[in-house]
Amino acid sequence: MAEVRLQKAMADAGVASRRASEKLILEGRVKVNGVVVKELGTKVKGDDAIEVNGTLIERERNKVYYLFYKPRGVISAVKDDKGRKVVTDYFEGEKNRIYPIGRLDYDTSGILLLTNDGELANLLMHPRYKVDKTYVAKVEGLVQSDDLKRLRKGVKMKDGHYSARAKAKVISSDRAKNHSIVSLTIHEGRNHQVKNMFETIGHPVMKLKRETYDFLTLKGLTSGQYRELSNEEVKTLYENARKNSKLK
Question: What is the pTM assigned to this prediction?
């Protein structure tokens, strides 16, 4: 049976990043088969029991990776206490315990990645990982060139935070209905980021869709459909994440 380093097994299970897992080990908060382990070089097998802070972690045997076209009106979670539809409802045949990487708002559609690979999820969600994500927004009013300049430069939002520089362009405008369709590419992932940026420049979002995530697109999918990522796509995500976040 293949052996892996303890911190990798913890990262794979979604406990924390490898670096954070190493800290937990050094602090004596990890047990393997009931014994506290503080050696970073320790290797574990698939049937070894790993406890973190007294809780047994669930280890996945097979890693799976999905690109999902999330519809509007669906929660980016594995369960909802209000009984609303969640993204994992679309994966009823999947035996592995998968979860979304990040989230999309309830009323936002588009690309969402789901996996049981905790290491990749931690890398992609790390604040230093600058993955480009492109959104197409239908907004109120006619967006002008000055509005685009503000988005490209970065805007100060209600919480006092300045957004990073973005790529922005108007796809179309409708004077009669007084709305615009705008493409916005950002690498930040704060809650309601895109909506807040447009609200700041006076053009509230009416409808929002995420069309790309890094190099991945929705090509070939319709709302509610999903596909597995290829080995090459997964490899590229890892390479890009490690390169951009400088986590080794």
Answer: 0.77
